[in-house]
Write a structure and sequence with these properties.
By secondary structure, the protein is α/β, with parallel strands linked by helices. It has one domain: Alpha-Beta Barrel (TIM Barrel). It has helices at residues 15-28, 52-62, 81-94, 108-111, 121-140, 175-184, 195-203, 222-233, 240-243, 249-255, 261-264, 274-286, 301-316, and strands at 3-8, 32-35, 68-69, 99-103, 146-147, 152-153, 168-171, 187-190, 210-216, 291-296. Strand 7 (168-171), helix 6 (175-184) and strand 8 (187-190) form a beta-alpha-beta unit. Keywords: Oxidoreductase.
């Protein structure tokens, strides 16, 4: 059975709008939601980057049923993992156990702002492994001191900790990361419909949920949807090796100057035809992902939510 989630793009919407959109998503029948955690938008046109944890606190009080999740938070540079463990514990209590902590190794775009540089991919993965140990240990109450190569913890304790540890989900882009998720997390999340990611996770002993974020752009016409996707999401066409390394909206603007609206349709289902959106979602289901996070690009969230409730949800379920 597929569980359906709604993506809250904090780079595209102001904080109060994010809360309103989540309330509407709960009413539309989504089972959970996932919010991005950015210090900067990807491109200037998106225009927003509020503090996700403040918004999550408001969301916990504005809703009663829908699950909450970060997709994803980086706990290796801008945040110390102890702070993320404390934030996750607090959200779990405020939401009455509706919170899932999604973690990833991050991007230079958001993490360089604290002035400590941006390490290479090998060091980032090593830091991530240490961060997962710290966060899990604090959330279970089994760890108070830690001395890793990169991260330390000194006599730490979470005084407000939920009875049930919130699930920790790790973002993966390759089999090595999928195996890390199997060993040190409660599930995995990806953005590409690669069955080898799910296979690597399961073969390494992972038995938790497999999340996937799927970008869509519903609009009255295919042309309108392509133009909207181009305006707000052309950065995604640069690919992960570039996305992880560029430092600013100006850099992403330069890197995507060649991208045309028509190029977006090859990566994102665009327009009002439900068959295109359902076909894209089915590729993730066939790859083994059991939790799908639907990410509507652009400002027309209510139109998409109506489309979801009336057309997509009945077909998917």
């Amino acid at each position: 059975m597929t569980t359906l989630g709604y993506k809250l793009m904090a780079e595209e919407h102001a904080p109060r709008a994010l809360v309103r959109n989540l309330v509407a998503a709960e009413q539309a029948g989504f089972e959970f939601s996932a919010i991005s955690d950015h210090f900067s938008p990807w491109v200037e046109e998106q225009g927003h980057a509020s503090f996700a944890w403040s918004v999550l606190g408001a969301m916990a009080q504005a809703t009663s049923r829908i699950g909450l999740m970060t997709a994803v938070t980086c706990p290796i540079m801008r945040y110390h993992p102890a702070i993320i463990a404390q934030a996750a514990a607090t959200l779990a209590i405020l939401s009455e156990d509706r919170f899932t902590l999604g973690l990833g190794a991050g991007e230079r775009l958001n993490e360089h702002v604290v002035g400590e540089g941006w390490p290479g991919v090998g060091e980032r993965h090593a830091r991530m492994g240490e961060a997962l140990e710290i966060i899990n240990g604090l959330l279970t109450g089994e760890l108070s001191n830690y001395r890793g190569r990169y991260l330390q913890l000194d006599h730490a304790r979470l005084f407000d900790r939920p009875e049930r540890k919130p699930p920790v989900i790790f973002a993966v882009g390759g089999p090595e990361a999928a195996r890390l998720a199997a060993h040190k997390a409660d599930g995995m999340i990806a953005t590409e419909p690669k069955p080898e990611l799910v296979e690597a996770y399961r073969e390494a002993g992972g038995n938790g949920p497999c999340y996937a974020e799927v970008s869509l752009c519903f609009a009255a016409s295919e042309k309108e949807a392509m133009e909207t996707a181009h305006r707000y999401s052309r950065w995604a066409l640069t690919g992960w090796p570039v996305m992880a390394e560029l430092p600013s909206v100006e850099a992403f603007g330069a890197a995507t100057a060649h991208v045309q609206p028509e190029m977006m349709a090859a990566q994102v289902p665009c327009g009002p035809d439900p068959s295109r959106h359902l076909e894209r979602l089915e590729t993730f289901r066939k790859a083994g992902f059991d939790h799908l996070i639907l990410s509507q690009i652009g400002p027309d969230q209510q139109g998409f939510l109506d489309f979801f409730r009336g057309t997509l949800a009945p077909a998917l379920r």
